[in-house]
Amino acid sequence: MAKKASNENSISDVLKEFIEANKLQTGMDKIDVEHAWKELMGNGVNSYTQEILLKGSTLYVKLSSAVLREELSHGKQKIIDMINEELKKDVVKELILR
After folding, report:
1. In the list 45, 51, 90, 92, which could disulfide-bond 41, CB 3.0-4.6 Å?
2. Residue-wise over 22-43: b if at least 16 C-beta within 10 A, else e?
3. What are the φ/ψ torsions at residue 49 (nearest 5 degrees)?
4. 74/28 Cα distance (integer angstroms)
5. Phi (first) and psi of residue 22, to 5 degrees
6. Helices (DSSP H) in the chain: which residue ranges?
7. Torsion angle of alpha carbons 13, 15, 18, 24, nearest 10°?
8. Tens of pLDDT along 28-75?
9. Rounded Cα–Cα distance for residues 7 and 9 (Å)
10. 3-state SS, one letter per residue, for 23-50
11. pLDDT given at position 7
């Protein structure tokens, strides 16, 4: 018996096409960056994190601790690199700690 030609796609491929067709990648990047921040920074930093906002390629993070903000400001590039590595693409180019 001959096999039918299959035009089945994986769910991953269908979702990628849907995201592209509806121009949802920017919103997905915002969600992914927020999730990556929470995963990479851990509970200590997250307890002081009040807001995470991605505008364009700039990540704004509002912290409730001035001491923590100062500490994290010394490793901004490392944080950017870690987030982009986690996402497997360059989404964040600049980090602003408030």
Report:
1. 45
2. eeeeeeebbebbbebbeeebee
3. -85, 120
4. 28
5. -100, 10
6. 11-21, 25-46, 66-73, 76-87
7. -130
8. 999 999 999 999 999 999 999 999 999 999 999 999 999 999 999 999
9. 6
10. CCHHHHHHHHHHHHHHHHHHHHHHCCEE
11. 72
Q: Which pair of structure tokens corresponds to residue 49? A: 């994190």
* pTM for the whole structure: 0.83
Phi and psi for 92 in degrees, rounded to 5? -100, 125
Domains and CATH numbers, the chain: 24-97 (3.30.300)
CA 44, distance to chain mean position in Å, is: 19
Round to whole Å and give the CA distance between 71 and 44: 13
* Sole residue written with tokens 């509970």: 43
- Closest residue by Cα to residue 54 from 80, 76, 81, 33: 33
β-pair type (94-97, 49-55):
unpaired
What's the CA angle centered on 26, arms 97 and 68, to 5 degrees?
Answer: 15
